[in-house]
Amino acid sequence: MNSSNNYRMENDPLGNIMIPSSAYYGSQTQRAVENFQISGIRLPRSFIKAQGIIKASAATANMELGTLSPEMGKAIIKASEEVTEGIWDEHFVVDVYQAGAGTSQNMNANEVIANRASEIIGGSQRIHPNDHVNMSQSTNDTFPSALNIAAVETISQRLLPALSQLQQELQKKADQFMPVLKSGRTHLHDAVPIRLGQEFSGFAETIHTVYQQMEAKLDALYEIGLGGNAIGTKVDLQPDYTPKVIQEVCNRTNLPFRQPGNIFAFMQNMSEPIRCMLTLKELAIHLIKITSDLRLLSSGPRTGLAEITLPSVQPGSTIMPGKVNPAILEMTHMVCCQIIGYETAIATAGMASQLEINVMMPVIAHTFLHSIDLLTNAIQTLVTKCISGIQSNDEICKKWMEESLSLVTGLSSKMGYDIASQIGMKADEENKTLKQVLLEKGLLTEEINKAIDPRGMV
User: Fold this and answer.
1) Would residue 138 show up in a list of annotated catalytic residues for this protein?
2) What domains lie within the chain, and their CATH numbers?
3) Is 187 in the active site?
4) Does the model's pTM come out above 0.85?
């Protein structure tokens, strides 16, 4: 019933409510919009796509089982596929911080698909968001399943390729820089020599290890609880619904989703997002270490270590002309700080599981999926705008290495620790090189000279 050109009135168990006339969503979504004007943040495209996949798969299974007419089923499938493609994203309007468990988000999908399917089918029948689109489903099984589908697709198609690219680029730099000798450093003080390529090989292997951990964690996300219904008891479901709907999801994604080993454990907990987020946190910690090292190694260019040069991507100061900062490394560090905070948010939300369900699923979904996107985008930018363009400053590396007092380590096996220490301390006090002190003491033999040759220490 139209009250104006801009709004239509709908009725639900709570009474009448006005909805924008152009909106495909309905009364429950509108109530959520009015109740939860919190952040303006919506669940991402990947999640909405997964909702469309689930609704199309459920309609297909219900048609095959004879509980949904072919005419209605085909209209729901077409509307759901349009949701999967992103055609109706602007009609998914519920804030992330909404009613617990994601009921509003599920109803947003149900109402958009129902209204669009009714439009497709024409005036012969009205497709109901609960009775038809949500048939054989509950928010409690579809929401965590949509999260897992979205996470699997995003991790496998975006994050893992980005990690692989980063590892390969770091290894390429390791190979390129292997001939470059330099001073190692522990406690930010001089240590025995190392190859610049060896440093970079450590970075590369660290990323490779996280890649393997993320790949292993991915397997558990293939468990989706469709058919669990409200609490896992499969109330009012046809016996063959669960295998049929999951197989249809597999068909539509070309991914090996499967039933959980225990449906009640799946319904009660958000275990896999929690575990995967721990790996993302570890990745963030390693990226902070790597980017911090690169900032130190590139510090200067005149008053720092300056052993490597980063690509210049933008001016670094509003007051100091010509200054260029490690902007990409700083951005990556900021993203990683956010990820570490996000892991805490998911951990505390995970503690909110009570009895048969975790009602914090919307914030877990947003935080987890946003973390994957943030890290993917940051890593891709890090590779293309920083790592691939790093150059070594061979002469500066050589200079610091030759001036390093840690070369005295090579004397320990020849003169003993105490005498070697005295020589090192004298060189430091008098601001001389080890060779100068050894020469003054008449100790610089061919054997001793060879002992403090950096090339013999790497």
Assistant:
1) no
2) 19-135 (1.10.275.10), 141-176+197-223+258-395 (1.20.200.10), 404-456 (1.10.40.30)
3) yes
4) yes
